[in-house]
Amino acid sequence: MSKAIGALTFCLCLFYFVAAGAQERARIGWAAMTASHTPLWVAQEKGMFMKQGLAAETIFFGAGPPAMQALVAGDLDIVVMSIIPTFIDHIISAANITTPELLRGKVGSVNRQGSISDMGLRLSLKRLGIDPEKDVRIVSAGGNPERLAAISNGLAQFTIMNEPFIKEAERLGFRDLVNMATLKIPLHGNGVVTREAIIKAKRPVIAKFVRALTEAIHFVKADKEATKAVIAKYTKLSDPEGLERTYKNYTAVLPEIPYADPAGMKTLLDDMAPKNPKAAAADPKSFVDASFVQEMESSGFIKQLYRR
Fold it and tell me: At 297, which helix (H) or strand (E)?
């Protein structure tokens, strides 16, 4: 894994207004239609990027690998993978699968090979004592609706899924088999990914982005109804119970001071190690740039924002 990819987290700073003419441009990719991107959606919908002097172009990718490829190719400045510190998806199965042990010999579906859903499912299976390479077969099926269809059609017997789609799975008669959050797998998905060269060349742009995103995190925690409206817009969910479950599921794990956890980066490196020996020897801390958090936390803005 190249050290040209640096993982950032973000923190808080004093808000300020800038003239529209002073705005700097940034191309931001986000991967997979999941409510873990709620702070990004809020920052876009509520004008927080503009407030920080950033003309942000957000670009949706169906899965993480193509977004990362675009970043490496120089087509993006930033990729938002997921702003949470662990996996909070669930393993959903056909109704006749009543325990994780019964997953052996079955077919599981993910968004695509190499995606965060693929990694999450494989790591969770390992925690459950199931070898994802030998005990099951994992296939690519697409987004959440496509994966539900795969189970309905018998093409797969289990998958990984998040709110608000868990409620839909239950409505269809599928089983909510495992809450992956209970497995407590560290995940470096609580921040922003960019290249080291971009940090050096565009540090003010990155700083503006993380300030806007951090303000959005506060908004998510402070204004439930407005946040649920944003989630509904992007996920096309209109069911009040589903929106409430989605909101609670994600806000419960959003950190107010979102430092990166090197253990989460180690999870990624360990997952890569069997195919890339360099990953096994890499230092997780070398991929984490905590300076944005440190600089902004020292401003005292977190206390001001949360009025402590």
Answer: helix 291-297
